[in-house]
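Lecture notes, part 5. Sequence design as translation. It can be helpful to think of inverse folding as translation between two languages: the language of shapes and the language of residues. The source text, in structure tokens, appears below.
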């Protein structure tokens, strides 16, 4: 007798059944594929990595070009060490500047004119890649369902 995948809850609620695991892997794989294609297109056209873009974008959006290093780390959900190493590489490329704060032990991170220019150049490529690899694959119904799922999962955390 061949066992059909089923969509019922297993006896132990801490375990997933085969169908739930299959759906989870499909969802995760789909996200990773789409995200990877978007990041690759942007990097190929702009020279910015996902991390570079994230740093520069947050400096502009959340800090009008400048943020405390800890605020930047928090906004990216990166630990202090990871961000510090990444900022060193970005500083060497002339994308950001770091300077110690006078009244505090903190560090201020600012976007340079070169960093701002690269960010501005990257945004259209990012938008085009998101449209191509994500939105053009969806129907209006898909968008409604994804929106509902995102709203539900974001409000429950």
């Amino acid at each position: 007798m061949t066992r059909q995948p089923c969509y019922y809850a297993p006896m132990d609620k801490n375990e997933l059944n085969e169908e739930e695991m299959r759906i989870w892997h499909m969802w995760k794989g789909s996200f990773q594929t789409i995200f990877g294609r978007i990041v690759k297109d942007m990097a190929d056209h702009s020279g910015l990595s996902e991390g570079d873009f994230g740093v520069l974008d947050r400096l502009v959006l959340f800090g009008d070009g400048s943020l405390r290093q800890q605020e930047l780390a928090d906004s990216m959900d990166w630990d202090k060490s990871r961000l510090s190493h990444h900022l060193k590489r970005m500083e060497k490329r002339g994308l950001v500047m770091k300077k110690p704060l006078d009244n505090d032990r903190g560090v201020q991170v600012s976007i340079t004119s070169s960093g701002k220019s690269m960010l501005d150049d990257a945004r259209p490529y990012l938008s085009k890649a998101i449209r191509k690899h994500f939105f053009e694959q969806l129907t209006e119904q898909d968008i409604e369902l994804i929106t509902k799922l995102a709203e539900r999962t974001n409000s429950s955390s």
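The translated text above is only one of many valid answers, since several sequences can fold into similar shapes. Residues 18-46 form the longest helix (29 residues).
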